[in-house]
Design goal:
Length: 460
């Protein structure tokens, strides 16, 4: 892995004055453009900078994309690959007015920088770039009316992954790949029981099962937000109400989901506990490959590792409660305002165009534009390859288009502070220290004072 030195940008006097004025008034006006740190790449006026995280594979793909951009547009781009402590390093650059031109970014930080006026408002560019105007609705990050701070880097959804060979050898039907045929939760538990064995080959539902010596678990229980939220939504629950100011995660519907997740480990014994998994758990791909587990709820991005392995993997839709649902989400990519905004936006539009980046065909990313989920030729352009199994069309493409909802933390205000309270509480359920209702009821007085409503959204 190569590491690139973060070279400072040079700030012109007018940029310093502009920053000084912003500090004086405290907050920027809703229009983002023209209120931020200095323009011009750190290597001079003609150089742009692109800051990002990711695996070494993603690094290679991004650098190849940037090379194509340079060749097509004649504008040099410095890649700032930052695989660790990303937000800390980006905060340092922002504080010292040495911001990159385009950067990956978490939602909380993106909204803060929009408030400070450091980001380009992409709304005026919608007419120039139809591919920006025709993306999946929940992939946009709006700051204010007609103020678009960015979109997701790519799209991702949550799926049910499994080892096909494990199912075949056990004579068990694999998870359905169509939303209309989604398993019930009871179906999932029953299947997981048939795929869980101790060292003597006994199942959890059979006498003498030794839960301390399990050879293979049926499933891994995912307590990350993206693991439980689609299930809660499927059951008619949510984290907050429609105003974003009332906590509702202790509703009967939400409590039921969390208790069922906990029961996978401690009652049904078909999923490993945190103690059994350990602090340095292998990736989903490795756990499926080594048959530590037979199924896992995880993100579409896992496909990249799956395709690079020799695992015979399959994809199913998530189990359904009241209706089949998954969630769509991803971090934002933003463009910093400066002295060459048009060139910066050109790079912004280029960086996640499926025509120039192979991370779609390789399996890491899903496209943002709706045509890649509706138009037959466009769909084939990214899924008609060895990485994407035959069931991908219904289990992912159709599932995304017709059965995905946005994750709450992309639009909920004050999300960083909320997460600091929410995460350790959910871990109490995961570790079995308390029942779901007790934990979720206790969260209400802690979370509700932090709720400030939703960030703006609008239709195009």
């Amino acid at each position: 892995m190569s590491h690139h030195t973060l070279r400072p940008r040079s700030l012109r006097r007018r940029d310093l004055l502009r920053l000084g004025g912003l500090t004086a008034v405290g907050l920027a006006a809703p229009g983002l453009t023209g209120c931020g740190g200095g323009g011009g790449g750190s290597g001079g006026d003609d150089e742009l900078q692109f800051m990002y995280w990711g695996s070494s594979f993603e690094q290679k793909a991004v650098e190849a994309m940037l090379k194509q951009f340079e060749e097509r547009h004649g504008i040099p781009v410095r890649p700032l690959y930052t695989p660790r402590e990303y937000e800390t390093k980006l905060n340092t650059l922002v504080a010292s007015n040495r911001v990159p031109d385009v950067a990956y970014m978490g939602a909380g930080m993106a909204y803060r920088l929009a408030e400070q006026g450091k980001l380009i408002n992409l709304y005026p560019y919608l007419d120039k770039y139809p591919e920006l105007a025709n993306r999946l609705p929940y992939t946009y990050y709006w700051y204010d009316k007609d103020v678009l701070l960015g979109t997701q880097t790519a799209n991702e959804v949550i799926l049910l992954w499994y080892n096909k060979q494990t199912f075949a050898e056990a004579g068990v039907e694999p998870p359905p790949a169509e939303a209309a045929k989604a398993w019930s939760w009871d179906d999932l538990v029953e299947t997981a029981d048939r795929l869980t064995f101790d060292q003597e080959g006994r199942r959890p539902s059979e006498p003498g099962f030794d839960a301390t010596r399990v050879r293979q678990f049926g499933i891994a229980a995912n307590f990350n937000t993206y693991g439980w939220y689609p299930l809660v939504r499927s059951n008619g629950g949510d984290f907050v109400d429609e105003t974003g100011t009332k906590y509702v995660l202790n509703s009967p519907e939400a409590v039921e989901v969390f208790q069922k997740l906990q029961d996978l480990m401690y009652e049904h014994r078909v999923a490993p506990t945190p103690a059994q998994t350990g602090n340095n758990a292998p990736t989903t791909t490795v756990q499926l490959q080594t048959r530590r587990i037979a199924m896992a709820i995880d993100g579409q991005w896992v496909l990249l590792d799956m395709a690079e392995s020799d695992l015979d993997y399959g994809i199913g839709v998530l189990p359904s409660f009241q209706e089949p649902l998954t969630i769509g989400f991803a971090a934002a990519t933003v463009a910093f305002t400066g002295d060459h905004d048009d060139q910066t936006v050109e790079l912004y539009m280029f960086h996640n165009d499926p025509r120039y980046v192979d991370l779609y065909a390789k399996g890491l990313w899903m496209p943002l534009e709706e045509k890649y989920y509706r138009d037959e030729e466009a769909i084939k352009s990214w899924i008609d390859n060895d990485a994407h199994p035959p069931e991908y069309r219904t289990a992912v493409v159709d599932y995304t288009l017709h059965h995905s909802v946005p994750i709450f933390d992309q639009r909920l205000k004050n999300i960083d502070a909320i997460s600091e309270v929410l995460t350790p509480a959910i871990q109490q359920i995961q570790t079995g220290k308390a029942k779901a209702k007790e934990v979720l009821d206790a969260l209400k007085p802690k979370v509700e004072p932090l709720l400030q409503g939703w960030h703006h959204t609008q239709e195009l």
